[in-house]
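Structure ticket #2291
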Amino acid sequence: MSARRNEIAMPPTAAEANGASGAGGAGLKEEFIAKRGYWNSFWDQLLEEDPDFFAAYMQFSAPSKTRALSDVTRELIYIAIDASATHLFEPGIRIHVRNALALGATKREILEVLEAISVIGIHSVAVGLPTLISEVERADARKKISSLEPASED
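Resolution: structure written out below.
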């Protein structure tokens, strides 16, 4: 590892992470699968185009080494993130539901996670409904005014 990279705690480059063997992204893919228990084909192109970025992402997004959260809890959190109204990433939901079930989560626990994150979307109603009421009142007022105006003589 270069002195500069070590000095600022940069993640290793793909070449450093995979040694001088020239394994390229294959070693990173295997490491990802070993740590996460899955692989999705959407990662393939990123790994091919920029293995250094993928290595940095993998280090940044990897579960903590302290393992304070259980694997089931971690999967439930991933489900919440992927199913949230601001993300809605169906392949991620599917992967993490499978993982959670395999780790012993119940259908009810997963449903409760989905119900809990559904409140994120309630803000669209909280903001949209007053706007709707205001605009309906404005439209009704315009109709009332126009019905009071005398008919034009043609």
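Closing remark: Residues 1-22 have pLDDT under 50 and may be disordered.
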